[in-house]
Write a structure and sequence with these properties.
The structure holds two protein chains of two kinds. By secondary structure, chain A is mostly helical. Chain A has ten helices and no strands. In chain A, helix 3 packs antiparallel against helix 9. Chain A is globular, with a radius of gyration of 18 Å. Chain A starts with a helix and ends with a helix. By secondary structure, chain B is an alpha/beta fold. Chain B has two domains: about 210 residues, P-loop containing nucleotide triphosphate hydrolases (Rossmann fold, 3-Layer(aba) Sandwich); about 70 residues, Alpha-Beta Plaits (2-Layer Sandwich). Chain B is about 35% helix and about 30% strand. Chain B is built from ten helices and 14 strands. Chain B has a six-stranded mixed sheet, sandwiched between helices. In chain B, strands 2-1-4-5 form a four-stranded antiparallel sheet, covered by helices on one side. Chain B has a four-stranded antiparallel sheet with strand order 12-13-11-14, covered by helices on one side. In chain B, a hairpin with a 2-residue loop joins strand 1 and strand 2. The longest helix of chain B has 16 residues. The two termini of chain B are about 35 Å apart. Classes of the chains: A mainly alpha, B alpha/beta. The interface between A and B is medium-sized, with 23 and 30 residues.
Chain lengths: ~250, ~300
């Protein structure tokens, strides 16, 4: 089999894994709680009672929803499969480890992208104008992939307890939300806060959202995309390496 | 290692360490195509680790394994094998039918073939009528039958099973064994691990006995049984109760066990022991209800071989 045919075959099988994840995990309670309800209530706690314009709120809500949803499936699949004793069957199938991981990322990515349409539509129905819809769409796609890859790193610990991973990921996700310019714009953060925010991929997606909706941001748009891409490559690289090592320890 | 066309599995000096523990220690064996090969051993002997290395789930620290001439763990080796892992489960959120479809798709089986084979396989194991129900509602035996069908959806050339009938009811266990014999009758190779000597005896052309990660014997079940000297036993039952001290005066008794309403003693001279037993019973007015001379079972052989290693 040629390299191209092999690549095509494994890509097709990654999609089959993703379809399986969609069927099984999208409706799981913890995914809905941590992926959808959690960011929405967190956002409401921030927004209700304050006189903030929707142009400011919607990019933040979009960033938070995409971040939480995209990182809600990928960390949970591995411990769930370990707990349900379905992982060994999957590893012994003609799949590369990368294929299994890519399948999980695709399922997580699609969940994030689909759910993130809701705040966009909510914004539009509230009269917000999206000035660069194509750029926003590209940003959502790249960020969805980036956050899904990050989610997979969060599930690196070879445990069979999804709750352990969920708690661990909330511990990581919470601080990231607070330093990414969602609640406080970057130019209003203190110097030290701004420096910390540069290491969060969510900072750059929120900035893309603000540029597409508020028509101004902190960075150049090209720089935002470049940083998102760099984070995606980095997360994907580490996710593949870590899972290659830890997957046999799960069985 | 050079691939041999007549061999389904070739394993050479396979070694796997977990820290200081050597789980599999320079294990070597070949399995000819079309054979049912059994891997026997007590818990912790290294059976599952060996299967996991050959099926590509784990990597060996040393040694090599070939499956139908392909290096173990490669996509080619995985593609031609069906696997029923120990303690494996089907996806409980999916129906039996969707589990079959998922596995078929992962092996690249065309959709129409998946449909036909799923129908055929599920019918054979009496699951077709419940194909649309979630696997969560299946009993343990039904799940194991489903997992076996999932392993066969790609029509593999070789089937690996790790403890396939452990903890199953008699009906499911029998169904799986019949199924395996039918699969083998088509010239397919089966590699199975088991604790159950009777299962190995009924199914396997050849068995390897593994203990502490080392193969202590490889041969046919029959030859392994007959090679164990001094392990003949006599099983006897009496009308009414008999005290174990009765056997003190029977000649040639090496050890004695009570088994339900019978006694079984081991001897290396079964003929003279039976004569002595009958004379003793007659002298003490004990009526013998049944008397059987038994050659060593595979279980006896297994215990003798693993005990020898320990001593």
């Amino acid at each position: 089999m040629s390299d191209t045919a092999l690549l095509f075959q494994q890509a097709k099988r990654a999609w089959i894994i993703a379809k399986k994840d969609i069927r099984i995990y999208y409706s799981k309670g913890p995914v809905i709680i941590f992926g959808i309800l959690f960011p929405v209530f967190l956002f409401l706690a921030f927004a209700v009672g304050r006189d903030l314009p929707f142009e400011f709120l919607i990019p933040g809500l979009l960033g938070m929803v995409l971040f939480f949803t995209s990182t809600s499936i990928s960390p949970a699949v591995a411990p769930w499969e370990t707990q349900a004793k379905t992982l060994e069957r999957l590893i012994s199938a003609p799949l590369k480890t990368h294929t299994i991981i890519l399948g999980d990322i695709i399922a997580s990515f699609m969940y994030g992208v689909l759910v993130s349409i809701v705040p966009v539509l909510a914004g539009v129905s509230l009269g917000i104008k999206i000035r660069h819809p194509v750029v926003l769409m590209l940003g959502i796609i790249l960020a969805g992939f980036c956050f899904s890859s990050l989610g997979l790193i969060l599930s690196a610990a070879p445990t069979s307890m999804p709750s352990t991973i969920m708690m661990l990921s909330v511990m990581v996700k919470f601080p990231v939300v607070f330093i990414s310019g969602i609640f406080i714009p970057l130019d209003q953060l203190p110097e030290w806060g701004r420096v910390i925010s540069f290491v969060s991929p969510l900072t750059y997606f929120t900035d893309i959202g603000r540029q597409c909706i508020q028509n101004h941001g902190y960075f150049f748009l090209g720089f935002d995309f470049l940083m998102m891409l760099a984070f995606t490559v980095l997360f994907l690289f580490f996710a593949l390496i870590i899972h290659q090592r830890t997957m046999p320890k799960r069985i | 290692m050079t691939a041999n066309d007549s061999m389904a599995i070739q394993v050479s000096s396979l070694t796997k360490n977990y820290g200081k523990l050597t789980a599999v220690d320079r294990v070597s064996f070949d399995v000819p195509k079309g054979e049912i090969f059994g891997f026997l051993g007590p818990n912790g002997a290294g059976k599952t680790t060996t299967v996991r290395i050959i099926t590509g789930v784990l990597k060996a620290d040393k040694g090599e394994a070939l499956v139908m001439g392909h290096e173990a763990g490669t996509l080619k080796a995985k593609q031609i094998a069906g696997v029923v892992p120990e303690m494996a489960n089907a996806y409980e959120d999916l129906s039996g039918w969707k589990n079959m479809a998922l596995m078929g798709e992962l092996y690249g089986v065309p959709k129409n073939v998946i449909k036909d084979r799923s129908e055929e396989l599920l019918n054979k194991v009496n699951l077709y009528s419940r194909k649309d129900e979630s696997a969560r509602t299946y009993s343990k035996g039904m799940k194991q039958r489903l997992i076996l069908c999932m392993a066969l959806i790609s029509d593999p050339e070789i089937l690996f099973l790790d403890e396939p009938t452990a903890g199953l009811d008699v009906q499911s266990s029998r169904m799986i064994k019949d199924f395996l014999l039918e699969f083998n009758s088509d010239g397919k190779t089966i590699f199975l691990t088991t604790h159950q000597m009777e299962e190995a005896n009924q199914l396997c052309d050849k068995v390897a006995i593994l203990d502490h990660g080392v193969i202590v014997k490889i041969d046919t079940p029959e030859r392994i049984r007959t090679e164990i000297k001094g392990m003949h036993s006599v099983e006897v039952s009496f009308e009414g109760a008999v005290n174990p001290h009765f056997f003190n005066s029977v000649s040639g008794v090496k050890s004695l066990k009570k088994k339900g309403d019978k006694y079984r003693f081991y001897t290396d001279k079964p003929g003279s022991a039976v004569v002595s037993l009958v004379n003793q019973a007659s002298a003490k007015n004990k009526e013998i209800v049944s008397l059987n001379v038994l050659s060593p079972s595979l279980e006896d052989a297994f215990l003798a071989l693993t005990r020898k290693k320990e001593s």
